[in-house]
């Protein structure tokens, strides 16, 4: 696979030239999984476990946030509408307007 650098970010193109990793406004679901989720006050709430994509529209419907537990044992999961998530480059994670006690 070829790796390229654009003015906005790095991305990887597969053999056919289709971007498969990341570009300015696109990111692979595999890179979203595991990204930390914080609330507006900077408290770590959990991480993105997976993203759910609408099969008809192709849009991300919601992210599944995992929280609690240790090494995958006792984790709980909470769906977050994708529109609620804002990516914060300074945190390298997503921010949601949820109180930590809700998790």
Descriptive report:
- The chain is mostly beta strands and 103 residues long.
- It contains 1 helix and 8 strands; from the N terminus they run ββαββββββ.
- It has one helix spanning 29-32, and strands spanning 2-5, 10-13, 36-39, 44-53, 60-67, 76-81, 86-88, 93-96.
- The strands form 2 sheets. Strands 6-5-4-3-8-7 form a 6-stranded mixed β-sheet.
- A hairpin with a 4-residue loop joins β3 (36-39) and β4.
- The longest helix is centred in the first third of the chain and has 4 residues, at 29-32.
- It starts with a strand and ends in a 7-residue tail after the last strand.
- Residues 1-9 have low confidence and may be disordered.
Question: What are its keywords?
Answer:
single chain; 103 residues; mainly beta; disordered N terminus
Largest sheet: 6 strands, mixed
N→C terminal distance:
40 Å
- Write down the secondary-structure element order: EEHEEEEEE
Instruction: Report the sheet-strand fraction.
Output: 35-45%
Q: Round the mean pLDDT to the nearest integer and report it.
A: 81
Number of helices: 1
The strands making up the biggest β-sheet line up spatially as 6-5-4-3-8-7
> Rg, please?
15 Å
Low-pLDDT stretches: 1-9
> How many β strands by DSSP?
8
Which geometry do the CA atoms define? globular
Could you say which structural class the secondary elements and strand pairing correspond to? mainly beta
**Helical amount:** under 10%
């Amino acid at each position: 696979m070829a790796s390229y650098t654009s003015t906005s970010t790095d991305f990887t193109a597969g053999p056919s030239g289709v971007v498969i990793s990341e570009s300015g406004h696109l990111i692979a679901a595999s890179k979203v999984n595991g990204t930390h989720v914080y609330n507006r006050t900077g408290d770590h709430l959990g991480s993105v476990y997976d993203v759910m994509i609408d099969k008809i529209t192709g849009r991300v419907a919601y992210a599944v946030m995992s929280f609690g537990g240790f090494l995958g044992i006792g984790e709980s999961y909470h769906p977050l509408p994708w529109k609620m998530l804002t990516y914060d480059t300074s945190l390298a994670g997503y921010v949601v307007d949820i109180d930590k006690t809700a998790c």
